[in-house]
Amino acid sequence: xxxxxxxxxxxxxxxxxxxxxxxxxxxxxxxxxxxxxxxxxxxxxxxxxxxxxxxxxxxxxxxxxxxxxxxxxxxxxxxxxxxxxxxxxxxxxxxxxxxxxxxxxxx
Amino acid sequence: xxxxxxxxxxxxxxxxxxxxxxxxxxxxxxxxxxxxxxxxxxxxxxxxxxxxxxxxxxxxxxxxxxxxxxxxxxxxxxxxxxxxxxxxxxxxxxxxxxxxxxxxxxxxxxxxxxxxxxxxxxxxxxxxxxxxxxxxxxxxxxxxx
Lengths: 107, 145
Prior knowledge:
The structure holds two protein chains of two kinds. Chain A is an alpha/beta fold.
């Protein structure tokens, strides 16, 4: 399935919806949106990934980039991660640095 | 799948989707459960990404990747072939528990892909055959979680 990424800014939140398969060929698209989102100085980065069927480490590297670009004060939410994508986040220890949620609930 | 099936694709990141589709179909035909089928695709994707990114000299325009699948014993064995520089992923230093526990702002991104690759399958192997690298991914068939 092709990859799609869309950015929306709502108040001080940057929301990015990811669909399809996120691999090393599609990660630059995601990274570009994170860079764009960072310029607005958001307080929260919310990633909606319910329809993301595949995520390679290239996707994890964009999350590291997001954290390093936006700073530790910005809360990163990953919302709706399905089984295998969630396992990858957990196996890599990323669940300790981002907020994993089934439905988006700002904390 | 009595005969091994195979494909050859250009060694580019745009080929990753085709490689995963091949592995997904082979897993489906062989009756591999969904969790292992995903792990197989992830493992293959990570190693193929490495080969495309670092294995071939950028000046080479004829670089290809070969992929073959066969059922052997109670397992599906998928072998990725490339003709780039010798590289045994098993020799790469992997992030340990301490690195994986660090906050993202202190993370080194290296090694995560190979960690996911090795953990994604039941058996991960590598061999150099002449001028070719062969990375072997094996998943068991017909077992639940």
